[in-house]
Amino acid sequence: MDKATVLKAIIEQRKSTFPRDYTAEEIDDQILHEILKSAEFAPNHKRTKPWRFKVFKGEEKRALGEKMAEIYKATVAPQNFLEKKYVSITEKAAKADAVISISVNFSGLVPEWEEIAATAMAVQNMYLTASVHDVGCYWSSPGLINHLGEFLGLDENQKCYGLFFLGKI
């Protein structure tokens, strides 16, 4: 198969797979590293590499799920609070083998939209790499991510743009 055909097949098979469809099998650390490493090859103006990823596994992942549930409970109006949604937040994190926070570091060297676009391309590389390894993934951007900055240790010039859930399929 020529390179163009292989590339086309990889792009066409890329899809979002949600945690409810993940198996209990762990993602090999080498594959997780390869997924993250692929992000580094995304184009970025002035080589700012604006993406900031933090991997959550095990106890850290459980703490992230609990923090997101806590944020949901604290920020939703009491009349709109849904116990089912509250519980599902921690369940979704638990079902994933790994969760990666996706943040952008705004360098001030280029327009902000370029830093966001470069980060999105980095995540696309991660999607494609995960796909070839039969790792399901999806980028989630619930409103509660706007309250994760302190938990993630983000600086003033950084912003979280979502969470990347991964699990074997």
TrEMBL record:
Domain Nitroreductase, residue spans: 11-168
Stored SUPFAM superfamilies: FMN-dependent nitroreductase-like
Pfam family, one: Nitroreductase
Keywords from the named record: Flavoprotein, FMN, NAD, NADP, Oxidoreductase
Matches recorded under CDD domains: YdjA-like
InterPro entries: NAD(P)H_nitroreductase, Nitroreductase, Nitroreductase-like, YdjA-like
Required co-factors: FMN
Assigned protein family: Belongs to the nitroreductase family.
Name of the protein in question: Nitroreductase
Organism in which the protein naturally occurs: Kaistella pullorum
